[in-house]
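Here is an idea for our session: we take a single protein and study its fold together. Once you have written the record down, we can walk along the chain together.
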Amino acid sequence: MVNKIWTIIFLVLHTYTANADDESPPIIKRTEWSSAPPKSINYLILPLPYVIIAHTAGPQCSTRSQCSSIVEGIRSYHMDTLGWHDIGFSFLIGGDGNVYEGAGWNREGAHTIGYNKRSIGIAFIGNFQDTSASEKMLNAAHKLIVWGKSQEILRDDVRVIGARQAVNIISPGNKVYEQIQNWPEWVSTP
């Protein structure tokens, strides 16, 4: 009888832990920060082999209101000024710990030439050349990746790289680039 109770407790705890890992981080839907729809949509073929980490190289934010305003500004710049079909990033991570939906999981972004059709692009809001991202931001981004793998949107063996590994830019900034190298999905060679 005692063995059966311990077995049940183990199974409940194991199930709870597995489900906790599969939870999506808080995602602020696009309709919650913008009323502008994409001009056109190109769908991705899933599961994706890459996640590209970038930074926006602008101001940081610490509240949902600030972050939403910055994300809308980026969307406007990408679509209205540059004439792109949508915001370039798939997701953006705010200093408030929220994930802001950009192009999303299954729509092609414009974040990294040569990788847009086979990756999602996650951008940290701010300039992380000399400043580290907070643990809250890093946890939200990594949880998004883990959730994407659990939903078979990203391959189980997905490769995480900094944008600088794919194109000649400083993104995601020196500090975030150092920080993502601790993730099990990070690879030194794309």
